[in-house]
Amino acid sequence: MDFLEVNGIHKSFGKTEVLKGIDFSMEKGEVLAIIGSSGSGKTTMLRCLNFLETPDKGSISVNGDMLYSSDEPPYSDTQKREKRLHFGLVFQQFNLFPQYNVLKNVSLAQELRQLKGKKFSVTEKREIIRNIDDNSRRLLDTVGLSEKVNNYPCELSGGQQQRVAIARALALNPDILCFDEPTSALDPELTGEVLRVIRELKTSDRTMIVVTHEMNFARGVADKVIFMADGVIEEYGTPDEVFGAPKSEKTKSFLEKSLENP
Amino acid sequence: MSFLEVTKQLANGFGVTVVIFLITLVVSLPLGLVITFGSMSKILPVKWITKTFVWIIRGTPLMLQIILIFYGPGLLFKMQALPRLTAVLIAFIINYSCYFSEIYRGGIESIPKGQYEAGQVLGMTKTQIFFKIVLFQVIKRIVPPMGNEIITLVKDTSLARVIAVTELVKAAEDIVSMKMIIWPLFYIGAFYLVFSALLTVLLNYVEKKMNYYSG
Ligand SMILES: Nc1ncnc2c1ncn2[C@@H]1O[C@H](COP(=O)(O)OP(=O)(O)OP(=O)(O)O)[C@@H](O)[C@H]1O
Ligand SMILES: [Mg+2]
User: What's the pTM?
Assistant: First the structure.
């Protein structure tokens, strides 16, 4: 059984069928790039994985834990909250919390999670907060922002904001980290620093899914590439297979177009 | 009548004005939020009843509402009328809660969906998302319109005189008609000006405090 298994995912909005049966699987530690033209359903797929949309049909499991299955009764909100933590998501528009400084953006979810509904003595609580604080600073160091812990998001460049968002998504230690076009909202000169951070995150056991229009990045970093077109997986393979010797006509013409105007 | 005597008599009226102002504010601020939740409810009957209620209250004069709440129970159901000040407070609280609720709703709806989704993917509960992420951003956005509404409340308190509650304007009017002097009316004008000036200063301070981040 694979680490991530996605089977037969269908999703419609009203009458438009956006996902028409998506099947793929990933092994632990793999990096998967999803490419495809605008409107092909990439974002919708990531949103299904992250419980922001509910598929109409199909199943998703991580590490043997069934996260969604249209054959089974839906989970309660509490169960969903637990299960969704298998995934982390970095948004195109960052979505940082503007009223909190960088450190708090990263620590907030950890604090809510570890302190909610439990009783701790003052010293225990202080200890927990200190650990969360250390962990958050370490994560911010990983994305190269140790200097900015006390700044507010509005004081940062887009690239820095997106790096905070990456640290925030890592804070609850998800099994699979998803990125939805993490550099599309950035000025061209800022994409490099974000892509570099993502590349550095690639370690033996960190599983990632990156939806991207950066073909060089996909080719250089991903272990597997999915090309999506009109709600189906048109092509799947290693970067060399998909970029070097695409089988489908749609893939070929998409790659040609994106080479012309990257 | 000496200046001091007039001041003393007006001070009583001003006391009533301040009571109406403060009690309306303290009760309506949270009650408005409850009404907001009603008008944004997923349960359609709750939503539509709340919206209709808000529409009626905002679409009719506060003065009419005060009169109805004071005389209505007696004339309609032969009940004993409420004490005058109580009737005024009920009318003000209902009226201002509805106005506040619309400001809150506008504020809540102006928060981008991405803020909720960011909280959701981090495993936060709906309550946590509202209180830890959304609420503060809403407050920041609504301070200016709320400020306007609160200043209006200062002046609206004078409507209480319609059922003979002796707030500041009525207190002055009583002196004017008894002593045939006009200056107390200008004098109370100064009361209102100082009152709203103080509030403006306070509201500007709050607004500035919350401006530590932009957006
Ligand atoms: N909430 C929604 N309601 C209705 N239609 C939607 C909704 N979300 C997405 N769609 C539609 O689904 C289709 C796929 O959208 P999606 O955002 O998944 O595409 P995408 O591959 O991420 O595109 P892009 O590269 O532009 O981000 C589009 O036609 C879009 O209009
Ligand atoms: Mg998209």
Answer: 0.87
